[in-house]
Amino acid sequence: MRRPFTNLTLDERRVIARMLQAKVPKTKIAAMLGRSRSTITREVKRNWWHDKDVPHVTAQSQADRRRSRRRKLERLPDLRAEVIRCLHEGWSPEQIAGRLRIEPDTPHRLCHETIYQYVYSAEGQTAQLARLLPERRRKRKPRYARTPRNRVFPVETSIHNRPPEINDRSQFGNWEGDLMIFERIQGDANVATLVERKTRYTVLLRNNDRKSRPLMNRLIHEMSPLPAEARRSITFDRGLEFMAWRELESGMGTTAWFCDPQAPWQKDSVENMNRRLRRYLPRDTAVLQLTPCSMRMMCQRLNATPRKCLGFRTPTEAFRDELIRLEAP
């Protein structure tokens, strides 16, 4: 993982001054400080003034003076107003910066990082501009930060804490979910598979990417019409595409359970269904060309196939019977 960028400190500049006076090569200076050689070269070129007494202090003051300059969005009110207007329109900083680069009548250009810095500056926080960003974070997330898996999937959601009535398939309304992944040439397109544990009823959803929040919103949209007793829980593996599982609980009251790390076989119903599906969806399938009609026909074929575990009833029949039982007084 790349190291997050940090500015050189006064102590580091003091070391650079001593080593330069000793004629030490920049490569060795960089190795000693744990910096890249380009950082040392850039520091000498931009900040170094050959003050024989305290060169590191002079270099530090030059760097501080440069960083104290007002940002472009603070200096240019017209550009600032245009950026804020686009943020209100729902554009991301990257989209705003990219659009300004191709606009022929725009006198100024800027990068998306400049917009982010302004949004999270004191002035931007006062105007609550962070609420206009796609992620709507009040504090900026570190660029290379990773959320520990034990915080994303806490022990309380482990499959080992799943109630017995789910494990023995005696209770209706408990599902298993997974993503079917295809060849790399298909990009992030995938097919989400949902299987109800008791009836083996299957739902298939085509997705254009693997982002977690859109996936959870899609599940909520598809499953919300069902009675609450028919969507009690969903069991997933620990893939990052399921990180937004809390959306299920807040959106429709569905509990999420998770397999152990590297143990997707613990959700056996959906894994078995994925193997069956590979007959119709091999890995070289052009996923983006799958139409909603073809997905429905595939679901109907799977759910109309008699299953030995259901006494040779079909999943459609078993699922319908359970829904009728829920509606009975």
Describe the structure.
The structure is a single chain. This protein is of the alpha/beta class and 329 residues long. The protein folds into 3 domains: 10-67; 72-132, no CATH class; 151-327, Ribonuclease H-like superfamily/Ribonuclease H (Nucleotidyltransferase, domain 5, 2-Layer Sandwich), CATH 3.30.420. It is 44% helix and 9% strand. It contains 16 helices and 5 strands. The protein has helices at residues 10-21, 26-33, 37-47, 55-67, 72-75, 77-88, 93-102, 112-119, 122-126, 149-152, 164-167, 212-223, 246-252, 268-277, 292-303, 315-327; strands at 174-181, 190-196, 202-207, 233-236, 255-258. A 5-stranded mixed β-sheet has the order 3-2-1-4-5. Strand 4 (233-236), helix 13 and strand 5 (255-258) form a beta-alpha-beta unit. The protein is elongated. The mean pLDDT is 85. Keywords: DNA recombination. GO terms for molecular function: nucleic acid binding; transposase activity. Residues 159-323 form the Integrase catalytic domain. It holds the Pfam family HTH_38. This is IS30 family transposase.
Summarize this structure as a short list of keywords or feature phrases.
329 residues, alpha/beta, Nucleotidyltransferase, domain 5, 3 domains, 5 strands, elongated, Transposase_IS30-like, WH-like_DNA-bd_sf, transposase activity, nucleic acid binding, RNaseH-like_sf
